[in-house]
Amino acid sequence: MGISLTASAQLRESTNLPDNDEKWYHIGIVIMGTANRFQINQHPRFLQYDSVLVSNPNNNFGFGIGGMHTFRINNRFEARVVFPQLLFVNKSINYHLQYPDPTKGESAEMDQNVESILLGIPVQLKLKSDRIGNFRVYMMGGFKFETDLSSKASSRNAENLIKLNKSDFGIEAGIGFNFYNKMFILSPEIKISNGITNVHSRDENLKFSNVIDKIQSRQIIFSLIFEG
Fold first, then answer.
1. Residues pairing with 214 in the sheet
2. What is the end-to-end Cα distance of the chain in Å, rounded?
3. Would the CA dihedral through 215, 93, 150, 117 be positive or negative?
4. pLDDT tens, 27-79?
5. Which of 192, 222, 223 is nearest to 37 (CA)?
6. pLDDT score for 160
7. Which residue of 64, 130, 131, 176 sits 20 to 30 Å from the alpha carbon of 201, by its own alpha carbon?
8. How many percent of the chain have pLDDT more than 70?
9. Cβ-count burial of 10 within 10 angstroms (0-12 exposed, 13-18 middle, 19+ buried)?
């Protein structure tokens, strides 16, 4: 009996933050790196006119920061809300033009960039494995709402811009790992975040816009989460 109690005490001493999983609420900080691209559906006009020969999305990168709020449901599940979440991203489309206009800075092959500052609120459900010492693996999924603070959808003087609507709604899923340290929990996480709404504000008068029907956002987000 004495040996059992001694072993249990030694195990608890070697376990970092042994009571953390019993907290009903804890807060953290998220630092994010993102890989971004558009998912494009061409408009029927693309086949009717020859001013734009090709329009393909490029892969781009960004970064962000957020606050993580976690609520315990039971031993297996937690609810998480990331707020506020700010992402600074750049997305671009590569065009091949049949008749480029040098007076407007156009060339036969060129990129159109769309810079965005995204204020988001992801809401997620987290499924946790058993804790093994100071390590745990988890999966998460949920949805997000984002608004683009730099949206140019209402800009009139934007002949060289692809204009996007301010709001987007999407779904997310990913996997992560909890590493329990003496003072905090470090959680590297990777997730796929896909918009399901059409964010393209199509303008029939703009040649870079009228050949595209639908634009949806696609992201892979790598996060480092620090929780107390």
1. 41
2. 35
3. positive
4. 999 999 999 999 999 988 777 777 888 899 999 999 999 999 999 999 999 99
5. 192
6. 62
7. 64
8. 90
9. exposed
Q: In sequence order, which residues have a C-beta less than 8 Å from that of residue 159 and are 6 or more positions away?
A: 104, 206
Interval 134-189: pLDDT, tens? 999 999 999 999 999 987 655 544 556 688 899 999 999 999 999 999 999 999 99
> Are the beta carbons of 113 and 160 closer than 8 angstroms?
no
Amino acid identity at 1: M
Residue 30 burial class via C-beta count within 10 angstroms: exposed 0-12, middle 13-18, buried 19 and up:
buried
Dihedral (Cα; 64, 169, 216, 225), 10-degree rounding: 30
Tokens in use for 191?
């997730």
Q: Give which of 221, 145, 228, 218 is closest to 188, Cα–Cα.
A: 221
Count the residues in the chain: 228
